[in-house]
Structures are given as C-alpha cells and as structure tokens.
Amino acid sequence: IRLHIVCDVPDELIDFTFEWKGLKKLCVAVSFRSIIAEQKKEPEMTVRYYISSADLTAEKFATVIRNHWHVENKLHWRLDVVMNEDDCKIRRGNAAELFSGIRHIA
C-alpha cells in the first residue's frame, strides 16, 4: 500500500527557498508492506521525503516515483545478474569504482 502527499511550500519555509531555486512542492511517499515469510503482524512502514520544483499533483508524484524506481531496478538487475556486480571481490584503492564505471558503460 502506498500513500503520496504533495503540498505547497508553507509560508514558514519561504525564506529557505533561496537554497532550492524554484522550490514549489514538498512531497511525502509512505509505503506499507507485510513480509509474509517473517509472519509479522504489523506491516512495515517506510516514509520518504522529497522536494520538487515541478508543480506536481499527488497522482503525478506517484507516477514519477514509480518510473524512477523502475529505471533504477532495471539498471541494477542488469548489473547484478548479467555482470555479477554483487559478487565482485575488487577492493583495492579506487578499483571498485573504476570497474563499476566500466560496467555502466558496457
């Protein structure tokens, strides 16, 4: 279950908008999930906070978040499964970062 909340920047925070040019909306995504394997009685709740310069509705915000994670998951699946990135044992210096960059290019 997901709940998405979008609101205008409150007057109390207007003075802080200089740090985020064009800030228009404060957004909250609340997710509830039950882990059946662990047989927890209460669902686990996750709250994520966002700021946006776009004039979003709650529905549009939900779509943007869903699309973002779809792309992220698709990319990481390829890196994890096809290129075995999770099994990489490279740890010396900045070699891990370099190889990660090469995998992203490939």
UniProtKB/TrEMBL annotation:
InterPro entries named among the record's database cross-references: ISAs1_transpos, Transposase_11, Transposase_11-like
Protein name: ISAs1 family transposase
Gene Ontology molecular function terms on file: DNA binding; transposase activity
Lineage, top ranks: Bacteria, Pseudomonadati, Pseudomonadota, Gammaproteobacteria, Enterobacterales
One Pfam family, short name: DDE_Tnp_1
Top-level lineage group: Bacteria
GO terms under biological process: DNA transposition
Record organism: Escherichia coli
Ranges for domain Transposase IS4-like: 37-106
Residue runs in coiled coils: none
